[in-house]
Design brief:
- The complex is a heterodimer of chains A (about 350) and B (about 325).
- Chain A has about 350 residues and is of the alpha/beta class.
- Chain A has 13 helices and seven strands.
- Chain B is an alpha/beta fold.
- Chain B has two domains: about 1-185, Rossmann fold (3-Layer(aba) Sandwich); about 195-320, Rossmann fold.
- Chain B contains twelve helices and 14 strands.
- Chain B has helices at about 5-20, 45-50, 60-70, 90-100, 100-105, 135-140, 150-165, 210-225, 245-255, 270-280, 305, 310-320; strands at about 1-5, 25-30, 55, 75-80, 115-120, 145, 170-175, 180-185, 195-200, 205-210, 230-235, 235-240, 255-265, 290-295.
- Chain B has a seven-stranded mixed beta sheet, with helices on both faces. In chain B, strands 9-11-10-13-14 form a five-stranded mixed beta sheet, with helices on both faces. Chain B has a two-stranded antiparallel sheet with strand order 1-8.
- The chains are: A alpha/beta (about 350), B alpha/beta (about 325).
- At the A-B interface, α6, α7 and α13 of A face α3, α4 and α5 of B.
Chain lengths: ~350, ~325
């Protein structure tokens, strides 16, 4: 059986507001009116986020990080959706949402702690309304829906956004999250970054239909947006969040994008995908089109671009410095925070191990 | 004093917990109108509303995963897993998320989630309805694991569990749901982490929890007729263990038998035996013996009487430790 026998032959629709050439186009359902300053701010976000990522990859290559999951190519999806959030909204990321973290005000050095191995997550989720990275694929979608159910019970006007990838859509948890969000009408936006690859597995291994079309089966709207178009990602996510806050329940946003780098620094994509594919997506680069738009409309001058570049350099340098300065945790940190309340076994093991260690100092 | 079944005592305990804290929620399959398949949540939705007593979709991972999200938002969910054998779809959320997220957050997040699981056999049920999966959870750092054995403890332990800021897996002995006892409503109980000597004796210590406490008490009574003085300890907390009460007893009796329904191989009895051998080595008169389920899947119900430890198998082990 092929897809054509199932009646699902309508071509996917893609919301796009800024073409890869930097041309602004309109969409009947998604209006956006950005000032020059707002566009420049988005451009700055995109460049700085890419720089954080680049620096982290370099730090891993030099042995300073154990691993890094690069977001290269997904900057617009993350910055567009991240900047759509208001202070009261809550975000639940995967381990690749460095751009969303940036938008939520999480110091990039805190992201590096996890990948350097000094902690499993070094920021306060409540301080930034940005949850910790989830490594087990799709688990966070249920947390987001539960959190959204809490928003409902609080009578608050807020929404939750949860990030996941194309591979995660095959997980039971993600499908359960869709069901729960639907039957409880939870204020949650399912933001799926379809970067075409789940490590080595292409989308065809996960789905026979465009991912956004799955939403209708669960009873809520789904929309595919050009994930490399920061304007469209911003507009579509804003609308979905506003709907959620207004009590209209969940929306699934499929940001159609491309993982331009490896899955992580441990991966070798040359084993499973052709170079032509990457070259084709490079032409749809999320940053270049904003730059072209700014140039085309004479909204920014060279001085602006130079300034952003200098800021990126400084940010990268500072990130490197603070990464190298991250202290290794003390051995007793092993036993900290495992339980919130006093725990006899923790206390015993801690005391015994510290006493054992102290034996070496005599 | 009110005479309550164990199920009703849990119900009263949950009611008290919900009265005490508006953030306490109940969620699970059939917990609302039906009151749960064992009626533990009977009447709670009627009194506290559908927002606080939530009939969930039939998805165990969803129950725990959304409970985690609600806890992050400041709620205290009490989740019901309908039967022991149905907890495994939720195992990922319990083990990789519920147990580990507080540490992942360096203590910034607390997850006061209670996972209630009716456990154990002896009710003639079909497959997956009679299991004792506690060792999977005691092996998971970040969880507390407790088991109640009687109505008095059930009433206070469930309230203490709800009050705890740590995630707790709460085992309920389903074949004892209908056992009755006098319960003083409103009275506090022994703290959650404490073991309890439920019968004093001098010759042998029996360690048990959940459904096997009653079996051990009956065994001890029978042993007394043979002139043997058997002490019985209800562990109550399986993780962490209250080793003080245990070692005090075994140091006195010099002999110990651990009894649980779960398979003996890599069960909680192995951990207890190892810890007792370390702590009581010079006072032990015999090895610590274990009585429990066989290393087989839980059998069809016509065979469960052979699988489950009973009075005779416990007394046989008592004979064997006394023969040293």
């Amino acid at each position: 059986m092929t897809a054509s026998t199932t009646g699902l032959t309508a071509p996917p629709e893609l919301v796009q507001l800024l073409t890869p050439e930097g041309e602004r186009i309109e969409h009947p359902d998604y209006k956006i009116d950005l000032t020059a300053e707002e566009v420049k701010a988005l451009y700055r976000d995109l460049v700085l986020v890419r720089r954080i990522d680049l620096e982290a990859v370099a730090l891993q290559r030099q042995g300073e990080l154990g691993l890094w999951a690069s977001l290269l190519g997904q900057e617009a999806a993350q910055v567009g959706s991240g900047r759509a959030l208001t202070d009261v909204d809550m975000a639940f990321p995967t381990y690749r949402e460095h751009g969303v973290a940036w938008c939520r005000g999480v110091d990039p050095i805190n992201l590096l702690g996890l990948f350097r191995g000094v902690n499993h997550g070094g920021w306060d989720p409540a301080e930034h309304n940005f949850h910790l990275y989830s490594i087990v694929i799709g688990t966070q979608t249920l947390h987001a829906v539960g959190y959204a159910m809490g928003i409902q019970r609080d009578g608050a006007e807020a929404a939750t956004i949860v990030y996941f990838g194309d591979g995660a859509t095959s997980q039971g948890d993600v499908n359960e999250a869709f069901i729960w969000a639907s039957v409880f009408n939870a204020p949650v936006v399912f933001f799926c970054q379809n970067n075409q690859w789940a490590i080595s597995e292409p989308l065809e291994k996960q789905s026979r239909i465009p991912l956004y079309k799955r939403a209708s089966g669960f009873g809520f709207p789904g929309v595919r947006v050009d994930g490399n178009d920061v304007f469209a990602c911003l507009a579509v996510t804003r609308k979905a969040l506003a709907d959620a806050r207004a009590g209209q329940g969940p929306t699934m946003v499929e940001a159609f994008t491309y993982r331009m780098g490896a899955h992580t620094t441990s991966d070798d994509p040359t084993r499973y995908r052709v170079a032509d594919e990457l070259e084709a997506w490079k032409l749809k680069d999320p940053i270049e089109r904003v730059k072209a738009y700014l140039f085309r409309g004479e909204l920014a001058d060279q001085e602006f671009f130079d300034k952003v570049e200098a800021e990126a350099d400084a940010l990268g340098k500072e990130l490197r410095r603070s990464c190298l300065a991250l202290p290794d945790p003390a051995p007793e940190a092993l036993f900290d925070h495992v339980y919130a309340e006093p725990h006899a076994l923790m206390a015993d093991e801690r005391e015994q191990y510290l006493s054992y260690l102290a034996g070496f100092e005599r | 004093m009110t005479v309550l079944t164990l199920a009703k005592a849990l119900n009263e305990g949950l009611r008290a917990a919900m009265d005490a804290d508006p953030k306490v929620l109940i969620m699970g399959e059939d917990v609302g109108k039906l009151g749960g398949v064992f009626r533990v949540t009977d009447g709670l939705q009627k009194d506290f509303g559908e927002d606080r007593v939530i009939d969930t979709p039939l998805a165990e991972s969803g129950i725990i995963g959304t409970a985690i999200g609600l806890a992050i938002r400041g709620y205290r969910p009490v989740c019901e897993i309908q039967f022991d054998g149905f907890v495994f779809p939720a195992a990922d959320q319990i083990i990789t998320q519920l147990a580990k997220m507080p540490l992942r957050s360096l203590g910034k997040l607390k997850l006061p989630v209670v996972v209630r699981i009716p456990c154990g056999g002896g009710i003639g049920a079909v497959e997956h309805h009679s299991e004792s999966p506690e060792a999977y959870f005691t092996h998971t750092a970040g969880l507390r694991v407790v088991a109640c054995s009687n109505p008095v403890d059930a009433y206070t332990m469930i309230q203490d569990a709800v009050r705890s800021d740590d995630p707790i897996v709460f085992f309920e002995p389903k074949r004892r749901y209908w056992d009755k006892a006098d319960v003083e409503l409103g009275a506090p109980g022994l703290p959650l982490g404490k073991a309890k000597v439920v019968r004093t004796g001098n010759d042998v210590t029996l360690l048990a929890y959940g459904p096997m406490v009653k079996t051990c008490l009956e065994s001890a009574a029978a042993a007394e007729d043979d002139g043997r003085s058997v002490e019985v300890i209800d562990l109550r907390s399986l993780s962490p263990l209250d080793m003080g009460v245990i070692t005090e007893s075994v140091n006195r009796t010099g002999r110990c038998v651990v009894v649980h329904e779960a398979p003996v191989f890599t069960g909680l009895g192995g951990e207890l035996a190892a810890r007792i051998s370390e702590a009581c080595f010079f006072r032990l008169e015999s090895p610590v013996l274990r009585v429990g389920g066989f290393s087989t899947p839980y059998p069809p119900s016509r065979l469960e009487d052979h699988y489950l430890p009973d009075l005779d198998r416990v007394l046989d082990a008592v004979d064997r430790v006394l023969a040293y």
